Amino acid sequence: METKTLSLSKSDLKLLKDHLDKSNMSPYNKEKLRKEIKEATIYADQDLPGDVVCLKSEARIANTKTGKEFTFKIVMPEEANIKVQKVSVFAPISIALFGYRTGDIINWEMPDGIQEFKILEVQKMN
């Protein structure tokens, strides 16, 4: 799998760095995220391309093994409500997808092992 460089807005970068310091992520995920942040392309908030998964975006993804699709919005923890497909920015799936773009394939350690997802579509929310 080719390694993609993350695209992050300045505010999303700060959010991820703060989370990384306090997180109880697995060592695999922590090291992966630390490396991705270090190599990321950083944009001014208003210049982040529209197909990048970020805070206040809606992502449609598919598990590459099962083909099962998921659509959810990435929000701050206080707005999270799985019943309406709003997932906390600090949920494992949100952290895994952050900074990736439509068409990217990512691997991330989930509670049930390392999973692979393809990003099918990303839209910014208003």
Structure characterization notes:
The chain has 3 helices and 7 strands. The chain is α/β, with parallel strands linked by helices. The chain has a 5-stranded mixed beta sheet with strand order 5-4-3-7-6. The radius of gyration is 13 Å and the shape is globular. The mean pLDDT is 90.
Features:
126 residues, alpha/beta, five-stranded mixed sheet, two-stranded parallel ribbon, 25% helix, globular
Q: What is this entry, summarized?
A:
The chain has 126 residues and is α/β, with parallel strands linked by helices.
Taking the alpha carbons of the first and last residues, their distance comes to 33 Å
Q: How can the largest sheet be summarized?
A: 5 strands, mixed
How many strands in all? 7
Average of the residue pLDDT scores:
90
Q: Report low-confidence residues grouped into runs of 5 or more.
A: none
Order of helices and strands: EHHEEEEHEE
Principal-axis shape equals: globular
Strands side by side in the biggest sheet:
5-4-3-7-6
Supply the number of helical segments: 3
List the helices and strands and how they pair.
Elements: E1 7-9, H1 10-22, H2 27-39, E2 41-43, E3 57-63, E4 69-75, E5 86-88, H3 92-97, E6 105-110, E7 113-124
Parallel strand pairs: 1-2, 4-5
Antiparallel strand pairs: 3-4, 3-7, 6-7
Helix pairs in contact: 1-2
